[in-house]
Amino acid sequence: MGKKVALTGNEAAAHAIRQINPDVIAAFPITPSTPIPQAVAQFIADGEMDTELVTVESEHSAMSACIGAAAAGGRVMTATSANGYALMWEMLYIASGMRLPIVMAVVARALSSPLNIHGDHSDIMGGRDTGWIQLISENSQEAYDNLIQAVKIAENKDVMTPALVAQDGFNTSHTIEIWELEDDQKVKEFIGEYEPLYPMLNTDEPITHGAWAPPNWYFEHKMNQLKGLLNAKDVVEKVGKEFGDAFGRYYGLYEAYKLDDAEYVIVAAGSVCGTTKDVVDELRENGVKAGLLKIRLFRPFPYKELAEALQSAKAIAVLDRVSPAGAQGGPLFTEIRSALYDTLSRAPVINYTYGLGGRDTQPKHINSVFETLKKIVETGKVEKQFDCLNLRGVWR
Amino acid sequence: MALLNELAKKKEGLVSGHRLCPGCTHSVIMRQVFAAADTDKYDIVVAAATGCFEVSSGLYPYTSWNVPWIHSAFENAASTISGVEAMYRVWKKKGKTNKDIRFIAVASDGGTYDIGLQALSGAIERGHQFLYICNDNNAYQNTGNQRSSATPFGGSTTTSPNGKVKFGKEQPRKDIMSVIEGHHLPYAAQASPSNWRDLMNKVKKALDVNGPTYINVIEPCTTGWGFPPNMAIEMAQLAVDTCVWPLYEVINGKVVINYKPKKKLPVTEYLKPQKRFAHLFKKGNEYLIEEFQRQVDAHWEWLLKREECGIEYGVTKE
Prior knowledge:
The complex is a heterodimer of chains A (396) and B (318).
Chain A: E1 3-7, H1 9-20, E2 24-26, H2 35-45, E3 52-54, H3 59-72, E4 76-80, H4 82-97, E5 103-108, H5 122-126, E6 133-136, H6 140-155, E7 163-168, E8 177-181, H7 184-191, E9 208-209, H8 218-247, E10 254-257, E11 264-268, H9 272-285, E12 290-295, E13 297-299, H10 303-309, E14 315-320, H11 331-341, E15 349-353, H12 363-379, E16 386-388
Parallel strand pairs in A: 2-3, 2-4, 4-5, 5-7, 6-7, 11-12, 11-14, 14-15, 15-16
Antiparallel strand pairs in A: 1-8, 6-13, 10-12
Helix pairs in contact in A: 1-2, 1-6, 3-4, 6-8, 9-12, 10-11
Chain B: H1 4-7, H2 26-36, E1 43-48, H3 52-57, E2 69-71, H4 77-93, E3 101-108, H5 109-114, H6 117-126, E4 131-136, E5 139-140, E6 146-147, H7 176-181, E7 187-191, H8 196-208, E8 213-218, H9 222-226, H10 232-241, E9 248-251, E10 254-257, H11 267-271, H12 286-309
């Protein structure tokens, strides 16, 4: 049992980082993740951790310095959001391509333009193909727990892939919640010592990091890299169980909330799942078989397990906190629908974009989604495959 | 400094088999750097920016590097080495290494004057312990000779070509040394592989300085500049003797000129053998050569005056 604390999501991430006490952190402030490097700097100033904090001049340099420090042999972390994450883009691919198990706290936020500092998933969804492991947290507790687990997942020798742990900007990052802070020593024991494979600082065995690969080698490199990323799926499950054994909170690839016999199912990720759970509870009390499939591991995408978990559904709504940007739907929608194609289920799947730039999503909006799902099952007709929640006016 | 025959016996940090163009000076400069480093005393770790040198020396599954070496992208040699150096401090602090390691970042003018300027500025300002070497070949040579802010006035490149109504690059070179100096770092210098003893002295000195250091090295490019492959060192020498490339140091803000040509050659001596300047010699373009000479003279005079004044940064002259 940890100690119950009332702190924000950013503070949860900062405490996880303090307990992990990585060798190096290179970070540049950006709203809403700024409080993370600030808190870390204070922890260091107060002697509560002894990480080397490199206060770089941009997020591009943040990820570059993380790559340098990780290749040198370090356990390395950083934090960012939105445009900062976008500025790292080039280096995100390089970090995963170089197989460096960097762990990053991402406080998910809208991308410009228009400039907006509030929560949505434009950043992490845009970066879904950068080769990073992506874990999405619903609340502060998960942001804390996931960061600790991410270190162990990324550093697993069968994985050796960087991992990001997302929480929602403001909804989680700036909201005070009650969560359990574990004992420093127990966390330290859980993550263990990091043994780097080919540290550059071992000058007795000089290694070339980041060689370029022409057409006769690039392909093999990328497919080996993919194996590492795919291996993460089993490791996420294993570490989630180990974490439960150590701290009492068990984690899997996803969370099935009242899903076993659910007929009307929402698939979502992040803080909206809290609201959805409340609505599901209420509907269940009224005899409606509602359920939630909460995405935890988005990359690698556990498509078989997720499709399997949706087999009881008669109608499914996938909530994406990002614009579909010209695709048939949001990224979560297209991947869930694609995963279902291999199964017997032919339940209609609809898609909503919600919460862009911090737009509120209230129980009444989630209720309206379940209403629509019921109507689809009753009439057998899908009026709109794609719609928006809480958007001014009517979407097309 | 050690005798030449002793230097020749030193273990090489960069070995042969790389794929640089015949006559390229990247490897010449790097071997001078390794020869200068006191490798009995300390080990060297290198970070490289994307560019000719990087693609020619780190091609999977081969490497020409006998020292730990990292490449990650074009614009971030300085921030990459920042991370490596920060990690070294961690290992030192935790007693995980007893080695003395010195860090070198290598980039060309593209990765230094232009796309990498921000990362470099940040790394110097933060005070990381590293030597940054810019092998300045006056253009983006790895992608085929496009203009950079280091391209000299009048130089024809593929993106500042000489044409029927244009004469090549219309702007003077960026004075990167002044930009670097503005960080008030302890040591910055300009060097040339033609004056190898001077270059080596500077490298040795820079590697022993406490704090970030910078050396700007002229890197004549046979293909981009258009001269025969056996002429690279002569090109560098001509740049030095015409004062197109003054050899000097900035030690705590104080300018020390290391070489003053007995007879300062006219810039035409430097321009003539290079195809990139051929159009400047066409009838009617005399004014361009005059302007080139004017720019070189102005800079040289300015440097001489700064040396004469002899003021260190933050120190009032008695």
